[in-house]
Specification:
By secondary structure, the protein is an alpha/beta fold. It has five helices and twelve strands.
Length: about 200
């Protein structure tokens, strides 16, 4: 199983470490050419969504990634990755991949509360550690979106078909619950493909 990890900025090395712990291969994606290799899933890490969106366009990576997601490739976006996938961003006119039926609010916790740590339930898997860094959160979900985690009344993790997003950074805590959940999505997708 090979997961492409977008390596333009942000905590991509930590995502790679979690994938390796779980026995998956990580392929670093830095150019449009890197997207030509066989990939079973994609991870869009945290960082700065505006910068990442601009780099994706400048490097001609936005459209190929969008096409992969629309054709069913599993994708997992954390923090800025969530904003890249959101169809709507309340406090930003820019749209990026816009493949997931969610509305998000950028830097939603404000600069002062920009970073905090908590524990909360994720997708019926019990409480897990959650690190938020100038995080967004989801203000609205569309049809077919399953809410996986809520902190202080705010949606911080959700899934729509083969798309998974978290407002927090599961790669920073040494806990593999969320990555294992995503790899199970990838495994199910690979099985479904092999049966067709």
């Amino acid at each position: 199983m090979t997961i492409g990890v977008l390596c333009l900025q942000g905590a991509f090395a930590e995502h790679e470490a979690r994938l390796k712990e779980l026995g998956a291969q990580a392929a670093e994606l830095r150019s449009a050419e890197d997207l030509q290799q066989p990939l079973d899933g994609l991870i869009l890490p945290g960082g700065e969504s505006t910068t990442m969106g601009k780099l994706l366009r400048d490097l001609d990576m936005l459209q190929p990634i969008q096409e992969k997601i629309r054709s069913g490739m599993p994708v997992f976006g954390t923090c800025a990755g969530l904003l890249l996938l959101a169809e709507q961003i309340e406090n930003d006119t820019r749209r990026h991949l816009a493949t997931m039926s969610i509305t998000a609010s950028r830097n939603a916790y404000g600069r002062q509360l920009g970073s905090f740590f908590t524990q909360a339930s994720f997708g019926g898997n019990g409480d897990i550690p959650m690190t938020f860094i100038r995080a967004p959160y989801i203000t609205q979900v569309g049809d077919g979106v399953e809410v996986l985690a809520v902190v202080d009344g705010k949606i911080v993790a959700a899934r729509q078909d083969n798309q998974l997003v978290t407002a927090f950074h599961p790669e920073l805590n040494g806990n593999t619950t969320v990555h294992a959940y995503f790899l199970q999505m990838v495994s199910n997708s690979m099985q479904a493909k092999s049966q067709n």
